[in-house]
Amino acid sequence: MNRPASNIRRALSDATQRLGDRVDAEVLLAYALDKPRSWLIAHADDLLPLDYAAAYALLIEQREAGEPIAYITGRRGFWSLDLEVTPATLIPRPETELLVELALERLPTDRACRVLDLGTGSGAIALAIARERPASKIVATDASIDALEVAQRNARRHHIGNVNFVHGEWFAPLGDSCFDIIVSNPPYIESGDPHLQQGDLRFEPMSALASGTDGLDDIRRIVRDAGLHLVPDGWLLFEHGWHQGDAARMLLRDAGFVELSTARDLEQRDRVSLGHWLVSSGCHSPRSSA
Ligand code: GLN
């Protein structure tokens, strides 16, 4: 393509044709130019300098090869936060904001609560809760050091100081710490699900997506051990697949949780299950243990 310098409008329509998606074409050009997307409209007749055109062409090639937009640009919005994401982290999904909403409903604004986010990835859930409940203390774990580094950079970028990032699998690094609320968006896709070989999922960390033949291996571990780290009157909330609501509530019930429910996402699919913990087990004094 040895065309003379093109203008923004022309570059966008060429890219839209190649990618089959106008939004992707705009997001990538805005990224190449380091401008907001709205700038492109106002400057449609501006010439696109050749070095920017070359940079844009490379981005389009990456996208044509299937790479997710969030990994190409290294960013994804979640809640009110613009987050760094890398291939070490899952790309935050809008439906996961439901988990944040349900946790916030159970976190009073006038009291410091202790919150645990298991498998934090980019830190999306922990940081959203931390931002909304600045007096609370959040602990966020991940088995991936690379993911934790991304999450810590996200915390620093947003000046969020009430999250403590801890390395390890699920509850392993937590000793006998106690929490008022435990949240998680664990891996929950069946390991044989053909979707894992399609679209963005091909580029995301398998350890953040798949969890055994029925997708429930990690959820089983989380539900089994959560009671050891919850104060009486505590809550466990976790995300799962649209067809896993019944299984999720069954696991919660068998582990001793009560007031079980499953909330639906904006597309009316089962997405988050939750249970109330009333037992004095590992954590004795309600909402006051260290
Ligand atoms: N919600 C993601 C998907 O189905 C999976 C994320 C996860 O396993 N936690 O694409």
TrEMBL record:
Domain Methyltransferase small: 102-192
UniProt-annotated binding residues for substrate: 185-188
Residues annotated for S-adenosyl-L-methionine binding in this entry: 119-123, 142, 170, 185
Record-listed E.C. numbers: 2.1.1.297
Keywords noted in UniProt: Methyltransferase, S-adenosyl-L-methionine, Transferase
A GO term, aspect molecular function: methyltransferase activity
Release factor glutamine methyltransferase N-terminal domain boundaries: 12-74
PROSITE patterns hit by this protein: N6_MTASE
One BP annotation, GO: methylation
Enzyme class: transferase
Nuclease listed as a keyword: no
Catalytic activity, reaction form: L-glutaminyl-[peptide chain release factor] + S-adenosyl-L-methionine = N(5)-methyl-L-glutaminyl-[peptide chain release factor] + S-adenosyl-L-homocysteine + H(+)
InterPro entries hit by this protein: DNA_methylase_N6_adenine_CS (IPR002052), HemK-like (IPR004556), N5-glutamine_MTase (IPR050320), PrmC_N (IPR040758), RF_methyltr_PrmC (IPR019874), SAM-dependent_MTases_sf (IPR029063), Small_mtfrase_dom (IPR007848)
HAMAP family: RF_methyltr_PrmC
UniProt record similarity statement: Belongs to the protein N5-glutamine methyltransferase family. PrmC subfamily.
Function recorded in the entry: Methylates the class 1 translation termination release factors RF1/PrfA and RF2/PrfB on the glutamine residue of the universally conserved GGQ motif.
Alphabetized PANTHER family for the sequence: HEMK METHYLTRANSFERASE (PTHR18895), MTRF1L RELEASE FACTOR GLUTAMINE METHYLTRANSFERASE (PTHR18895:SF74)
Protein name: Release factor glutamine methyltransferase
Gene (UniProt): prmC
